[in-house]
Amino acid sequence: MVAQALAYQFSISTIPKMLDEITQASCIEQKLTNQRYYQYLSMAA
């Protein structure tokens, strides 16, 4: 019972943090992709 409660508590506190990290990572990735795209466009122009 106690172990279940602890595991539940742990997942409640950890999952949002993991989601945050994933969101931040994809944000950074998106920015890098945009930068590459703009560089490509400026070279083509």
Outline:
By secondary structure, the protein is mainly α. It has one helix and no strands. It is rod-shaped, with a radius of gyration of 20 Å.
Notable characteristics:
1 helix; 96% helix; rod-shaped; mainly alpha; 45 residues; single chain
Description:
The protein is an all-alpha fold. It is built from one helix and no strands. The protein has one helix at 2-44. The longest helix has 43 residues, at 2-44. The radius of gyration is 20 Å and the shape is rod-shaped. The model has no long low-confidence stretch (mean pLDDT 84).
Number of DSSP-assigned strands? 0
Per the principal axes of the C-alpha atoms, what is the gross shape? rod-shaped
Helical residues, percent? over 70%
The parts where pLDDT drops under 50 for at least 5 residues are none
Question: Structural class, judged by helices and strands?
Answer: mainly alpha
Mean pLDDT: 84
Give, in order, the helices and strands: H
Specify Rg, calculated over alpha carbons.
20 Å
* Strand composition percent: under 5%
**Main β sheet profile:** none
Enumerate how many helices there are, as a single number.
1
In whole angstroms, the N-to-C terminal distance is 65 Å
